């Protein structure tokens, strides 16, 4: 199975900071990658699909990049509502749709 | 609007089975796969598998093969996830989600396994 490794597992940041989260696949998944945001007690919310496509309604401060095995989620200017846990997911349906381990974005 | 409404919380003893339902509305039910994802307390997301509601075809994560069964009933627009031989580490919130990656998720069903 494809393994998805996210880093860091947690990050402390301040409002207005630029935050970057990385996700590495154990083999190439082209651009079959999604990013989710999850807040406590809530279902995950889709932010990015196909590695870099912004889901409708998601603020433009979120962006995704990468292809093959290395991917990045960037929050350009962290807002108070962005403190949450972020997950990547490999989205190639010919393989198990594995999630990364998660990155918790905490207030500094 | 798309809605996925799951059944309520369950408490089960080790060795028992649980069946969680997910009722869909607001879209053509047969046209989208339904996935199941679980999340143990304080842990990450774990994909369990999917069902094609039109054909009944399924694809399970290797970890759950032999213990999970996903079924669907198109007449009532509902899919089910049954997990057998429950263990305490199956305690988790179980989510259904339409056609991952997706922004359409159920509200989650807490399954607690405890003696």
Strand content of chain A: over 45%
Mean pLDDT of chain A: 96
Strand order of the largest sheet of chain A: 2-10-9-4-5-6
By oligomeric state, this entry counts as heterodimer
Q: Which regions of chain A contain 5 or more consecutive residues with pLDDT less than 50? A: none
| Radius of gyration from the alpha-carbon trace of chain A, in angstroms | 13 Å
Q: Looking at the structure, what is the overall shape of chain A? A: globular
Largest sheet of chain B: 6 strands, mixed
Extended strand count of chain B:
10
Helix proportion range of chain B = under 10%
The radius of gyration computed from the alpha-carbon positions of chain B, rounded to a whole number of angstroms, is: 13 Å
Interface with most residues? A-B, 20 and 19 residues
Number of helices of chain A: 0
Average the pLDDT over all residues of chain B and give the rounded result. 97
Count of DSSP strands of chain A: 10
Strand order of the largest sheet of chain B: 2-10-9-4-5-6
Structural class call of chain A reads mainly beta
């Amino acid at each position: 199975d494809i393994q998805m490794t996210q880093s860091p597992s947690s990050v402390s940041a301040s409002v207005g900071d630029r935050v970057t989260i990385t996700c590495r696949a154990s083999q190439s998944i082209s651009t079959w990658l999604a990013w989710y945001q999850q807040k406590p007690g809530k279902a995950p919310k889709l932010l990015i699909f196909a590695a870099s496509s912004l889901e409708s309604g998601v603020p433009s401060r979120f962006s995704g990049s990468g292809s093959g095995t290395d991917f990045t989620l960037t929050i350009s200017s962290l807002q108070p509502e962005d403190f949450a846990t972020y997950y990547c997911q490999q989205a190639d349906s010919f393989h198990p749709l594995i999630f990364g381990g998660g990155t918790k974005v905490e207030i500094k | 609007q798309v809605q996925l409404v799951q059944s309520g919380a369950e408490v089960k003893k080790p060795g028992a089975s649980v069946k969680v339902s997910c009722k869909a509305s607001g879209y053509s039910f047969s046209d989208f796969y339904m996935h199941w994802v679980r999340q143990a307390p304080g842990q990450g997301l774990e994909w369990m598998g999917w069902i094609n509601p039109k054909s009944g075809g399924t694809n399970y994560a290797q970890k759950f093969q032999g213990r999970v069964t996903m079924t669907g009933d198109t007449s009532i627009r509902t899919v089910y996830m049954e997990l057998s031989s429950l263990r305490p580490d199956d305690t988790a919130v179980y989510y259904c989600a339409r056609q991952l990656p997706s922004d359409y998720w159920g509200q989650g069903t807490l399954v607690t396994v405890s003696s």
